[in-house]
Hints:
Layout: H1 5-9, H2 14-24, H3 28-35, H4 39-47, H5 54-66
Amino acid sequence: MSTNDWQTERMMSPKAYERAMEQLGLNQAQAGRWLGVSERTSRRYVAGEAEIPPAQVLLLRTYADLGLTPRVPPWKPGDN
C-alpha cells in the first residue's frame, strides 16, 4: 500500500457517488437525509460542485461493500 492509498479511499467522484446511491437504492433526497445533508448538497455532490466529506465516502462505501440497506429518516416539513 502506498502512502496515498488511504487518501484515495476517502475520496469519491460524482459518478462514484451516483453509483453508490443507485447500489443502495437511494435517490438524491434520500441520500442527503441519510448522510445528514440537504437535498441541495446531495445534488451538488452529483454535479461535482461540492467535495464529498471523507466520513460520508467511507460510510457509502462500507454500506455498498457489505450490501447493507440504509435506514433513511423520513422527510418532515421544514427540512431542506
